[in-house]
Design a protein that fits this description.
Length: 310
């Protein structure tokens, strides 16, 4: 345990009435045997010691600029942090760190036994454990390698592990994988998949293999593909009537083992020509009509078909 801090400073000759610095040679060689020390030299040395003790005495309450890397550690078996800071001014950060260039403002490495690189505990009932803010980047970024996870959240109370706060407005240009809560409290929504796609805007489909009709496709705010309109086979037998672009196609996890299947018997030619039909959308984007009716009489509705693209 360190000795208690003295209450009296080690000041000396603060009036600087009899003070003279020794020569550089004298300072280098020190006192000679039986040398008489001039009082002004001794006063200079004691005054200098007093200045240094004053500096060190007030070191902990002064602001400092560190120009080299500092390493803080604690003794073994002491369960304290390497650095502990407590702010005495209300509503003020206890610590502020600013990185240089692409460097992080704060980087933490966890202990060898599954220790966390950074741990935050909210103060009070509604305090956040970790808060991230950014202008054009990400407020909080998590990355992993091997079998690790970029992020992991635990829930132990009556609320969820993650809460999305309603946005002021829906994002006008969400990126792939973006998730948000709409201003109306709906969602969560996922960002669009694929560059150049305007979410919610229908795109006119292109008929293939003599198919006829007008049909559309678009992505909604949740990242799902939606279909609409009517299309007729145009030829006998099963026929690929159109193909969706890559960003609108179902994934291997969609209904039907990679395809989206929807039975319908809608027909623009009247009930007498209505027949059982199946619409198949494959992972390569092909839209195939399977029907037991006439070759071109059946106009099949695509309205209401919706599937995931992620």
């Amino acid at each position: 345990m360190p000795a208690p801090k003295p209450s009296s400073p080690a000041d000396w000759d603060t009036s600087i009435l009899n003070l003279l610095a020794p020569s550089a040679g004298q300072i280098a060689s020190g006192w000679a045997f039986n040398q008489t020390v001039p009082s002004d030299w001794l006063n200079w040395w004691q005054n200098l010691v007093g200045q240094w003790t004053d500096y060190l005495r007030d070191f902990e309450i002064q602001a400092h600029t560190w120009t080299v890397s500092q390493t803080m550690s604690t003794q073994a078996l002491i369960t304290q942090a390497g650095i502990t800071g407590t702010q005495s001014i209300a509503n003020t950060n206890a610590a502020n760190f600013t990185g240089n260039g692409s460097g992080a403002g704060l980087q933490g490495t966890g202990g060898a036994t599954n220790g966390y690189g950074l741990s935050g505990v909210g103060g009070g009932a509604n305090g956040g454990g970790v808060i991230g803010q950014s202008t054009n980047g990400a407020g909080v970024v998590g990355s992993s390698s091997g079998n690790g996870k970029g992020g992991q959240f635990y829930q132990s109370g009556v609320k969820g592990a993650i809460q999305l706060v309603a946005a002021i407005s829906d994002p006008s240009s969400p990126d792939v994988g973006d998730v948000w809560q709409s201003p109306a409290g709906q969602g969560p929504y996922r960002g669009k998949l694929g560059d150049g796609i305007v979410t919610g805007t229908p795109v006119l489909g292109t008929n293939l293999n003599s198919a006829t009709g007008t049909w559309y496709y678009w992505l909604d705010l949740e990242g799902y593909t939606n279909l609409g309109g009517f299309v007729s086979r145009g030829v006998s037998g099963d026929n690929i009537v159109g193909q969706l672009p890559a960003a609108y196609r179902p994934t291997s996890g969609a209904a039907g083992g990679g395809t989206h299947l929807r039975p319908t018997n809608d027909s623009s030619t009247g009930a007498i020509n209505a027949h059982c039909c199946r619409v198949n959308i494959a992972t390569n984007g092909n839209i195939t009509l399977y029907a037991d009716g006439p070759a071109s009489a059946l106009a099949v509705s695509l309205d209401g078909i919706r599937f995931a693209t992620f």
